[in-house]
Specification:
Blueprint (H helix, E strand, L loop, with lengths): L1 H11 L5 H7 L7 H27 L1
Helix pairs in contact: 1-3, 2-3
């Protein structure tokens, strides 16, 4: 989970590129963008599930 949070923060808050984020996650140069993309989308999924749950509670 921390890798997801780190990647999400680095891309959304700090504005790092996919390559920069992937390298910070420890991925090699060929897999850095893919690794970062996967973790960032995991983060968006977590945020989406949270807000969907909030909508259900409000309904």
């Amino acid at each position: 989970m921390p890798a997801i949070l780190d990647a999400f923060e680095w891309s959304v808050v700090d504005g790092l590129t996919l390559e920069e984020t992937g390298k910070r996650l420890g991925a090699g140069s060929k897999g850095a963008k893919g690794e970062a993309r996967a973790r960032i989308f995991d983060g968006f999924g977590i945020v989406d599930r949270y807000w969907q749950a909030q909508d259900r509670k409000a309904a």
